[in-house]
Amino acid sequence: MLDQPLPAEQSTQEEVSSEEEDEEMPEDTEELDHYEMKEEEPVEGKKAEDDGIGKENLAILEKIKKNQRQDYLNGAVSGSVQATDRLMKELRDIYRSASFKGGNYAVELMNDSLYDWNVKLLKVDEDSALHSDLQILKEKEGADFILLNFTFKDNFPFDPPFVRVVSPVLSGGYVLGGGAICMELLTKQGWSSAYSVESVIMQISATLVKGKARVQFGANKAGTRPPRKTASRGAQGTGSHCPHPHPPIPTQGHPPSSLDAVEGQFFPPFLDSFARAAPIASWVGLLINFSSREQPPLPLGPLLASDRLPPRSY
């Protein structure tokens, strides 16, 4: 029985089955190769993403990622996913940019936070008075750069960063008393989510020169200045601290030109329009005179006809 040959039909079926299996093998191999290629693509993409970035800056990026993973495990995640992803992209673009490598500016993350940057403007227009001031500052204090601070909110890039000058103390150049920079670009109305952080840095550098910013050497002895306490966190980066970015705004070192600058004064909303229309001196004198004399108690009942003021004639 064992020596008998198999029937022709069975033999044919087995041969056909073997041929079908042989034909299917290359397809499985192709699918496996395709799967392996898919696994390798992220590695190649990561390599392309890191092209043009120095080893030192790559180490900073890796440290940021490591800290983010650790914060996630600890349940202490800060910021938002969209803002973090965009800021990582901005930082990568800066690290590979020609302006950064050429020494026009430098970037440092405060406490390794993506949401708090210190930016040093290392080069400004050599024909400007600001450049001359920075050279003098280098001789006196050993620093010839402008230190800016960028603060990003969770809804970046849909809201602009809040930018201020930390040091040296500048006048002119659209720089306000607390170091905030008054630019249409940094307001909600003038901001676009398509703007890159590097373009903002370069625009600020050009604006300082165009606005004829100068270093206030006497003010620098007190050291770097903190942000103004009068500016709320919600107002930062929204442009509310800078309602009229053009024309130039009075800066530190100049006398106040409006009633808002009179320290310690407050006018209720119903007096605000009158206060702004009247000269400062007359209103200050009125307040002093009003506060120095004793006032009668206010009537509790309705005013009589005789107590009412006559109508004002215009």
TrEMBL record:
- Broad class of enzyme this protein falls into: transferase
Main localization of the protein described in the UniProt heading: cytoplasm
Q: Which SUPFAM superfamilies match?
A: UBC-like
* Domain UBC core residue range list: 82-244
**InterPro entries attached to this UniProt entry:** UBC, UBQ-conjugating_enzyme/RWD
Q: What is its EC number?
A: 2.3.2.23
From what superkingdom does this record's organism come?
A: Eukaryota
Cited CDD domains: UBCc_UBE2Q (cd23802)
Instruction: State the compartments where it is located.
Output: Cytoplasm
Which residue ranges are recorded for the region named Disordered?
1-51, 219-258
Q: What protein does this entry describe?
A: E2 ubiquitin-conjugating enzyme
Q: Which organism is it from?
A: Laticauda laticaudata (Blue-ringed sea krait)
